[in-house]
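Schema walk-through. Below, the input block comes first and the output block second. Nothing else is stored per chain. Lengths vary across the set, and this one has 115 residues.
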Amino acid sequence: MVSGHFEDVPRVLGIVEPKGAWVVVSFDPSTNKEQRDALAPMILKTYGLEWGEVKVQEAPIEINRTGDIVSASLGGGQYASMKLQREGGAYGKGVVLRNVKYFGAQNNDGFEMYR
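--- output ---
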């Protein structure tokens, strides 16, 4: 799980380049050192930003999906929690956004829309 603060930093000739002021990468305790060492650079590269401060923490990550409702918590809700409902779309089967670039990720299987 990644949380952070993004900001726009002025660049040459007034062109704005996004920069991450800080980022916290959270790993579930079940993730071993080898997995963390492999995942951390990929996670940070996905966003394609320079980070002012990088922190790594360990906290249980729990994700539950029941029907059209998804809930997630980090550290038992101490650090973060959310509950979202799937967007039904025109036919009630859900909405999936496909073929979009997401920061540094060139490919994906689509993003299910929730609110």
